[in-house]
Amino acid sequence: MKWTIKLVFEAVPVSPVEHDVGMIERAEKISPASVGLTIAEGKALLASLQKQIVTAQVEQHVASMKSCPQCGNALRTKGHYQSTLRSVYGKVGMRIRRLRACPCSGSQAQSFSTLFTNKSPITPELRYLTAKMAALMPFRKAADFLGEFLPLSAQATASTVRNRTMKVGRRLQRSAETLATTTSNGPCKELVVGFDGGYVRNRHRRPERNFEVVAGKALDRDGHATRFAFVRNGGSDAVSAVGLALRHCGVNEATSVTVLTDGDAGLRAIHQQVAPDAEHILDWFHTAIEDFLAAWNENPKPFVWTATVDSIVAKLARCRQTLEQIQPGCTIPKNRKRMSS
Fold first, then answer.
1. Domain CATH code at residue 263
2. 116 and 139 share a domain?
3. So what's the pLDDT on residue 312?
4. Is residue 173 domain-resident?
5. Residue 55's domain spans which residues?
6. Pairing between β-strand 77-87 and β-strand 17-25 as defined by DSSP bridges
7. Do 42 and 95 belong together in one domain?
8. Phi and psi at residue 329, in whole multiples of 5°?
9. Are residues 50 and 76 in the same domain?
10. Cα–Cα dist 7/56, whole Å
11. Which residues of the chain have pLDDT under 50?
């Protein structure tokens, strides 16, 4: 059996143009491994489709820019340059024309590009997909995961994934102030803010091996949550991140703010700078465990506690999950066999 995939392009309805995209061959007897398209075949077809579609789009766009939109005079060509579009379905080479500026435009630039791109354009979908995967897993794992499904020409290294993610992060940081100003739905009457920190291993061994990341959430009376996070390095980023989250929620002088922390001095300092009149409530659960561990380890008998508060809380969560699996009227979990007497 053989299938031929063709792409029909109709710039003019009466003169369609056909392009061979690919060909699939299969034996008459099928197996689970030969049913449908394979990952490699899907990658090749998508890359071929993307190349044909992008090339046709660029040609039609460049051909449509022949005259000045203001005076109607013909625009002169200055030259061409090569560019590569990086997309989810592969890299596509493009030949882009530059035009000389029309005198009626009054522009100081002598020439301009016919396509809104630079020498290394990247589609928004590829930026989004790369940044989303990199936010959920390490950069190298994200690069390997994307390489399993994207065409060969769209695969990226761990450093490329990191650079693209950092660019998206800087762009989000620049637009955070605008988002906090424009998305506020009105003044907030009551707000509860809680934040805590955790240590992450630094990819650079110097000057320190670990750094602290603080994450928090602001919750209003209606249950709408605004989350924020920052790296605590002694700068003004902490106050800016918390302040933006509060402004996003519509906090003003009349808002009743309650802050939940574990009593850390650094978090209390941030709280005093951002919301000095807010009511502060200690997270007594974590604080009590920390005090117990510190008091026990001063005179350890018969052992020293090496578990952290987070590991203890995680174990309690697992115990609760096990207890919830017990059927009513039975004291043995579902996945545990009864012992014969």
1. 3.30.420
2. no
3. 81
4. yes
5. 2-121
6. unpaired
7. yes
8. 80, 5
9. yes
10. 12
11. 182, 337-341
The values of phi and psi at residue 8, to 5°, are -105, 120
What does the pLDDT look like over 113-129, one tens digit per residue? 877 766 568 888 998 99
Question: How many separate domains does the chain show?
Answer: 3
Residue found by looking up tokens 């769209």 in the block: 154
Q: Which two tokens stand for residue 233?
A: 């390095």
30 and 97 together in one domain: yes
Which residues have a Cβ under 8 Å from the Cβ of 101 and sit 6 or more positions away? 107, 109, 110, 111, 112
pTM flag (> 0.85): no
Residues 168 and 250 in one domain: no
Does residue 219 sit within a domain?
Answer: yes
- Burial of 98 per CB tally in 10 Å (0-12, 13-18, 19+): middle
